[in-house]
Amino acid sequence: MKQSLPLSTVHINDSFWNRYTALIPNKVIPYQWEILNDRIPDAPPSCCLKNFRIAAGEETGERKGTVFQDSDAAKWLEAVAYSLAGKPDPQLEKTADDVIDLIGRAQEADGYLNTYFSLKYPGEKWKNLTEGHELYCAGHFIEAAAAYYETTGKKAFLAIVCRLADLICKTFGPAKDQIHGYPGHPEIELALVKLYRISGNRSYLDTAKYFVEERGQEPNYFIEEMKRPGFRRIFPEFSAYDPAYSQSHLPVRQQDTAEGHAVRAVYLYCAMADLAEIYSDKELLERCVILWNNIVQKRMFVTGSIGSSGFWERFTVDYDLPNDSNYSETCASIGLALFGLRMARITGDGSYIDTVERALYNTIRAGISLEGDRYFYVNPLEVWPENCIKHSSRSHVKPVRQKWFDCACCPTNEARTLTSLGQYIYFKNDNGLFINLFIQNETSFDLNGNSVNLSLTTDYPRTGKIRIAIKAREISFSLHIRIPGFADDFSAALNGKHINVEKQKGYITIDHIWDDDEVMVQFSLKPRLIYANPLVRQNCGKIALARGPEIYCLEETDNGGNLSALSLDPQSPLEEDWRPDLFGGTMVIKTRGKKLAQSKNPESFFEKNPPKPETAELSAVPYGLWGNRGAGEMLVWIRGM
Amino acid sequence: MKQSLPLSTVHINDSFWNRYTALIPNKVIPYQWEILNDRIPDAPPSCCLKNFRIAAGEETGERKGTVFQDSDAAKWLEAVAYSLAGKPDPQLEKTADDVIDLIGRAQEADGYLNTYFSLKYPGEKWKNLTEGHELYCAGHFIEAAAAYYETTGKKAFLAIVCRLADLICKTFGPAKDQIHGYPGHPEIELALVKLYRISGNRSYLDTAKYFVEERGQEPNYFIEEMKRPGFRRIFPEFSAYDPAYSQSHLPVRQQDTAEGHAVRAVYLYCAMADLAEIYSDKELLERCVILWNNIVQKRMFVTGSIGSSGFWERFTVDYDLPNDSNYSETCASIGLALFGLRMARITGDGSYIDTVERALYNTIRAGISLEGDRYFYVNPLEVWPENCIKHSSRSHVKPVRQKWFDCACCPTNEARTLTSLGQYIYFKNDNGLFINLFIQNETSFDLNGNSVNLSLTTDYPRTGKIRIAIKAREISFSLHIRIPGFADDFSAALNGKHINVEKQKGYITIDHIWDDDEVMVQFSLKPRLIYANPLVRQNCGKIALARGPEIYCLEETDNGGNLSALSLDPQSPLEEDWRPDLFGGTMVIKTRGKKLAQSKNPESFFEKNPPKPETAELSAVPYGLWGNRGAGEMLVWIRGM
């Protein structure tokens, strides 16, 4: 079994990612703390911490915010935990300890923990699993507590969530006196697996498995739940409930396509992968492969995002990938990365990391501003700010990052992801080490009782040169280095001498007795074209630009308005232009194409004087950086000529 | 002042329109009668007539259907009235009389008439003008009664609506004891003008004017109304109300752009045009021109439809014309045609009729199946049936016409429009006659005491040959014949001799002393290309096909699947193929282009083997006829090469 290296042992210092990771302790975590305390003007009030204080009986007032508001504090604490692993900060740790204590005081005597139901509807606990999000919030509490325990060693939070988990394990299950239900929003499942791995308490694993296996059994739990007398609907838009929304349309072992709400789907699939690994359940793993392939081949945007429909934030059908009305939630890309990480770890297939990297370098990165205090929830591939108006089919698309959201799942998810980048870089097993991502860092790990120090040096993705320096005492192990799918022309050298290595399952493998050695891997990162499958109706004849793991886009700032009028000449050379001044240093791609001349005719269509294509220069920047220079048009898929 | 000729004097017998108009008395009206009586299996139950019986105290049960369900009966009666004008049918007239009697019995003693409020919320009358639709329904009752009086001469229905209108005039107005409000959904305004024209009762006109002028004054009536204690919301989606939705964001005389719900907008503009005409109000007319131009130049689809956003069924911004997620409600095109008809009549400018004709021959025609019993509510310009799934951003788009709708405004509106086509054909004033549309018919009219018989013979739009035979007794008048905007090359002949005529304000004018004369007008109807303004982001580089007043589209039946993969070569000749077997005879346009070959790669995007364009034949049919051969893809705007 492979495992990620513990976060506290992976010290990232990377020219590319520093501009985000350095923000987290200094800017993002303090900013989000202010938000959770309702101290940022003009941002939707969170009330998140206030709700806990009311539940703890320490403040009066009405519990406010979404039904799942508690989870914002949980994800913030998870981000804090990871951040403390990278950069100790006693004052921050004290603040976190205080929040954890507060959460403990807000917990009920039997372990129940949820301010929405405790305060507003105490008689309705566990009675609206469809919409209530109690188990979802519990999952985030557990993930946060697990992270906090792993990085600080402190057990107080763990004790709180174990009481909660114990209550859940007692409440849900196959026995007659248990509820035969499962959460409307998956999350508790993967969290219970984490808690099982930390605590060894088998009942957590059993309940995770129960939740996964029970989902979609007939009669559908949610449909039946809604029929019960006294059922109180929380979200009016679900009066016509479609079980596919919560992946409960079929038992998970019969599902072939990724359906419904995209975040729910990938969180569920994470748990399925975890269970497949722990139980060596080949059937369940095969199901994960089928669902993964359906997403990645047919239902994922080139930017590594998912969720084609703004309404219900959901998957739709194969090849339906609209650029300007999609949802592509930041959280969904995070879930996709977590799912891919598990699949790569379980199967040892590095091609899963291609997608993880696609999500991280593009959509997840786009989710946060370079200042750290503005966020995208929805990640379109084409934006025309003028038509992103309220109360319209495009009201979910924001042309600029926002301070916060009424439903604010993404910003804290972004924070916990950026602080836990280290978990993606390495897998270790008894025979060696896998290097997945090229993020400069230093680490040390223990291999069968022997200590190994490793230093990875790179300016990736500016270049594809990766230097791996290993210090060990004559230890034999396999070093697996991922070669990205886009890199056809890799080469490798050991201590300065070229070595012949073959790429297998996405990695090259160097078997060696390691002492004081240096590996150099190199591959080309030249700009390239990506073609849309003509089955994607929205993109027929269109081309996207990419370089390394980064997808590029056109922005109005560089190319003028009306980007859709531009077309790209696939024969024209793609030139690289390193711009140290831009976004803290980035590669710009320049090429030539045409632009349809603006018509003198004001009419939206006409019969005379067809628009004339005129020569145009195109200048593209990484999608992950779009929208950092004010509102303007943005376009990923460009018409071919 | 120009007027349309009375419907009962225009006898249509037209090879193009017969396939619809002949359906109305034989199929559409009986089918809709069955619907209104809840006798069509698998169609959403209407309960419309049942509601009236309950309100009349003749049946028990719950009042069901939308808040504006009453208006379905009104529009059905209006269609019956027009149908009786064209084709007397004593049995149908008896049925209509019975319905009118029933409506009378459902009316309250003070004239109030609305089954929703009478039965369900009698204490809330006139208290939710934002959503209540009482005035909207009243408007449709009045329009129906006016039509029924005009074609049957019977006054019973008129008496009912005059009682209702009297109550409205008493209830609404500037006096202290009156409500200073106006309807959330305009319709009563144009109806009150109609009733004024029939009755001469000035208070109807005054109240119509009050409603129009009061709209948008500060403080906004709807915003204030919603704040009142006890206000009960009917539509949850309006909790964040935007006054632009109901065109109440500004006083109408300050509005420059067509905003909000498209049907509401054009119904309001109709009333504004009526008032401008009656009061010779140049400022108000100029406002109508500004709003008209904004729609037609920048916010109208090439198929003559309006409403770019599925959510809120509304206008969005200039040049935002999405093909596959638009609303383009059938009712909105009907309203646009009614607005254009008024503008042409008032200004004498035939170019307004270009748009009326565009709406009638394309979207309004598309709204009904060739069988008469299936309807489109939403009229997309691009359909991929697979992605039109429930609970998604495209759930409003139906790839096939429907039996009926929960909100069923369009089918009865379609029926009343097709039965009143005659009103669009002619305007008469003291000096002569205007011929607007080329629909074969015979008519007779009186001009300053002299009788004129006119017979218009044509197979338009198969050809552009129009023969006008006039029989009169040496009467001098001007005959104005509209030359459509697309017809550059018209010619005219009087009694076989070519005459030189100039097109002015959309018409040619022949001044003549008419006796037994024949005018021949001819223009070319060759297929042509329409280019999208590059400002329409969704259509950059795309081309549409048209011929005469008809916009064409590609259908999967003729062109195979994945229509978006096709592109059109603008240099390739456009060939006409008359197909007598198809849809009762239609012209097909054939041309050549390319189709992107289907990829062997299942992935939605890839970096090798770009899709290859292969030669393809394109075969286009009129948009108005799409979807009459089962579900399949459809596409109006085709990529250029």
Average pLDDT number of chain A: 96
Structural classification of chain A:
alpha+beta
Q: Would you report the number of β strands of chain A?
A: 21
The assembly state of the depicted protein chains is homodimer
How far apart, in Å, are the first and last alpha carbons of chain A?
50 Å
Percent of residues in helices of chain A: 25-40%
Instruction: List the chains of the largest interface with their residue counts.
Output: A-B, 74 and 74 residues
- Let me know the largest β-sheet of chain A: 10 strands, mixed
Strand content of chain A: 15-25%
Shape of chain A: globular
* CA radius of gyration of chain A: 25 Å
Describe the structure.
The structure is a homodimer of 641-residue chains. Chain A has 18 helices and 21 strands. In chain A, a hairpin with a 6-residue loop joins β7 and β8. In chain A, α4 packs parallel to α7, α7 runs antiparallel to α8 and α12 runs parallel beside α14. Chain A is globular. The mean pLDDT of chain A is 96. β18 of chain A pairs antiparallel with β12 of chain B.
Compact overview of the structure:
The structure is a homodimer of 641-residue chains. Chain A is of the alpha+beta class.
What key phrases describe this protein's structure?
homodimer; alpha+beta; ten-stranded mixed beta sheet; 18 helices
